[in-house]
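ok trying again, last paste got cut off:
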Amino acid sequence: MSITELLGIKYPIFQGAMAQIATYELAAAVSNAGGLGIIASGGLSADQLREQIQKCREKTDKPFAVNLMLMMPNCPELVDVVIEEGVQVVTTGAGTPKPFMPKFKEAGIKVIPVIPSVKIALKMQEMGADAVVAEGTEAGGHVGETTTMALVRQVAKAVDIPVVAAGGIADGHGVAAAYALGAVGVQIGTLFLVAEECPVPDSFKEAVLEATDTSTTVTGRRGGAPVRSIKNPMIEKYLELENNNASRDELEALTLGSLRRAVHEGDVQSGSVMAGQICGMLTEIKPVQTMLDELMAEAREVQSALVIG
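nice, full thing came through this time. structure:
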């Protein structure tokens, strides 16, 4: 069964669950355009998540998902909301969904963890995941160490469940490449940062559009929580402190509220503008529908024109 048949969607394209950005507005736009819109629940209360789900359902009658950051202290409450609201798909990150799998299965919910390694992919398959998203280090936000090309192929060979590729994909060539590696679909985040429907300030979108292939960097490697963002004065200061073995308290003081500053206040100098390495390829703001239609049309052109040898 294809991922589109499994989830009841038109295109094999997931929208990444970008923290504080992947709200119902963006999720509904992606679902209406034929992909799988995903609401990011990280940082939300149970009531806030319920409101997001209900508002999303007002804007679309197509399938959409909720992403659960499993390290969140209120995750059990969020799981209950997802079940009560009849959400049919969840993606997960930052922990194991094992404690909640019986509830999910009983409710008929499809569980798709985001994973950074073959080892974790196999664990997710063993506990009953319906698919996995193999996300390479090219992605924006919290990242692993393995590149998309190396990770997706190895995961696809190792597991029997569908694999969705993520990290560094923003056009039809990337979609076709993911399929060549054994994926059955893609998850895309950075491209949607410059969608008309993406609820971030213009300054945030401009920072992404002005970025080049070398504009991002990863902070937090020393502390074991690597995050990819576009370089700015705050990020440069963080790297300086990190390289000088600054304490965790010093680093947290610098970054406290930095995502909110970028996403809600449009401060791209002292805020955290999380984006992937592919941002250097993005040149204009477009509607989500145009993005998805172009992605799939180009992917099919690439596939039909591909000549090996």
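cool. The chain has two domains: 3-197+287-305, 202-278. The mean pLDDT is 93.
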